[in-house]
Amino acid sequence: MYPFKLVVIDLETTGNSPKKGEKIIQLSAVIIEGGKIIDQFTSFVSPGKPIPAFIEELTGINDDMVKDAPSFHEIAPKILELLDHGIFVAHNVQFDLSFLQAELEDAGYNPFKGPAFDTVELAKVALPSADSFKLTELSNSLNLSHVRPHQADSDAYVTAEILLYFIEELSKLPLVTLEKLHKLSNHLKSDLDLLFDSIVTNKQKHVEDLSEELEVYRGLALRKRSHPDTTDEEIVFDLPDIEGHLAQHVPFYEKREQQMVMMNEIGHAFDESQHVVIEAGTGVGKSLGYLWPAVLFAKRTHQKVVISTYTIQLQEQLLHKEIKLLEKISPTPFRTVLLKGKNHYINLFKFEQSLREDESQYDVVLTKMQILVWLTRTETGDMDELNLTSGGQLFWNRLKHDGWHLTHTKDPWIGKDFYLAARKNAQEADIIITNHSMLLTDMVRESSMLPPYDYLVIDEAHHLEKSARQHLGVIMDYLSIKFSTSQLGMLDHKQLFYRLDQLLSSHTVDLKTHTFVLDKIIGQFYLDLEEAFSVLTSVFYKKAKKRTGIQKIQLRITDEMKNSRYWQPVLMSMERVISGMKHIEREFQQVLDTIKEKKIKLLDKEKALIEEFYSFLVDLTELRTNFQTVFLKDMNNHVLWLDGDTRSLPNSLTIQAQPITVDGNLQSEIFAKKKSVVLTSATLTVSGSFQYFLNEIGLADNVKKVQLTSPFDYHEVSRLFVPTDVPEIQQVQSEEYIEAISSHLIGVAQATKGRMLILFTSYDMLRKTYELMKESGLLEEYVLMAQGITSGSRTRLTKNFQRFDKAILFGTSSFWEGVDIPGEDLSCLAMVRLPFSPPDEPVNQAKSDILKAQGKNPFSSHSLPEAIIRFKQGVGRLIRRSSDRGIVIVYDRRIKTTRYGKAFLQSIPSMEVKEGDLFDLVSWIEDWL
Description:
The protein is α/β, with parallel strands linked by helices. It has 36 helices and 25 strands. Among the domains are: 5-208, Nucleotidyltransferase, domain 5 (2-Layer Sandwich); 475-636, no CATH class; 714-928, P-loop containing nucleotide triphosphate hydrolases (Rossmann fold). The longest helix is centred in the middle third of the chain and has 31 residues, at 567-597. It is globular.
């Protein structure tokens, strides 16, 4: 085993900074020798100061528990004895080690001088696909018992178990992978090179045969691809039989009449080559509702069915949950493939060559290590499987697939290429799962990634119009433009241009334009680009409407503005940028063509450089086309706008252009070309009518409409309350409204014991309400989490929300859907405003202008139905299972005081609606929950 003594330490403290006088309140050390846990020492520590309430809430440790505990000074000799000749290990070692060193110094002892391992860093290498590297989430995913998260004894013990698991997993890797990891590990932040050195030495002594699942090619270990069973029997049973099979395979299966209706409708639509739109309320089970008839139809007719979703999460869920279930049930095998755009896949040739570069930049080294381990496990080569740092994602740009400049045959990895394998699998698959983004990109691209198909299911269909606007439009941001263009670099930057120049010199290839002239052209282009953004930022800042206290601003560029004297300098500077880009593309395209035509014998690293340069030119051409579209072309039926944050211009500047309507595009490119399209979602109707949705997507005629209500009894399990003691938002200043809402929400939170999601339509109002509630001091024992303020993605915030008993989650529009919090974790949903889009939002303004010109009322034709569909999405968060109970509070009194308020209530499942003041609400909550 390994010749180390490992000392795994975890501390609980009164706060984050020893410099600010924060102290240790509990310490635990787990000793590992010979690869086994042999001892654990744990002690409470008297901090000599009160424990803050939020620390008590987090750790469960209170003042009584530490009042008779030893001071740190008393246990310091024991700690030093344990650490003697050991390696210090912790989950986020920087925190625990620096805290311990500060306390040792304070107590008059010498600091610990030995090596340290960080299990967060190790987790990133050993489990590169983990959803999260937090201790609780890691222990959950590895099924390790973690009894008391945030208490040092439990945290230290589970960290020790995780450490041993990682060492065991890494030891199973093939020697070729381990040797590369060892070499890279010298550049990590903690001393993990000692661990890799020991694993490699051990492995060299006992060389084993390569595992059957792996192969080694050109010095890289890869997982072999499994080949699906391809027998083609007929399926011999029809839809009703599925109930018996589901009951056999699904624990607690409840028969759902609506699901059977959905299956029959879809089967019929496919058979009759008909389009159908199906609203399937929460609990219908729509994923199985469309997947099963799709599988039956695909197998029976040998036709492919494409399933398109809006989110990557739903794609993964379909593949790993519903498809797995159907594979168990189906009497005949069927083939499913998940297909994404090509730059989701790794280019193995580029990666192989990147390993030969002597690179010490931390994110790059870590990412290379993660990819080396991942390649022994992935069958898809899809980067969405990896959990990369933001620096790692930038490095991925160098490795992503962009096709080939040199012919396929010049790529020694062609037989192992993931992108080509995905395309080949799609050719042979019965069911292809993709996303709206890929579906729409494929629609406008000349060479299609998807194989020919006539049958399509669009899930989360209420997003189709928005997705189409984004994909038929242009979005560019200053930082990405800077990053992608800077990869070329001038000669003294030693980037792509310099590396290409070296290659050309070594093969004595002469450029038409001299290197130094090209260098000047590139330098001038960089100056022009900076100048253009400086001019654009200045116009943006002068012309955008600013509101007090709000930093994010937006400016719609109208035709009138384009013809004004303000816009002329923008056009002139952008013309210079575009001209410079054309010049650069022309010169370098010629260079690449010359290398190809002259059939120059290139080394592998030179081939990889040519492919990297080709990728750069692909991106540069796309960027130039976008600049031309936005600044030089006539943008009929498009809306153009700029977004930014006044605190960080031009860094935060984004340029967007979108078609105002996409109904014509969707009609001609999808509905007219496909034999049968099924569109489904839980929220497609407004007051029982599909008309708004169908108009938006251009499918007004020749479509069957089916509305399936939720099987849940909302009257039994939910209530809706409208407070009467909060002012109407239109009648008071924003500040006054936020104060009233905050104090009301504090009262509600105390009654519901947290378990509450508060939804806002504006980030600014969210931030101010969160701050007021936090500063009130009345929610000391509650954990408040806010989107965009407390760290983490939407998924991470949701997971953290479920971890704490008394939690309140603040979210904006992206939380209105896609958040799935079943059970008691979420009992109360508060909506601060009805979810109308801001009227001055550019796309809304442009749609209103068109509707007015057609003699229609923009409010009733667009703003109201759009808000109702969002409102339905919000209410849909509350009841996710038949056993859930919950309450919706709508603070916006317009739901009761206006004529259109009725339309909101008519569009959601029928539930009891009450009005009253905070006192009524609290007593109602106490009775009800």
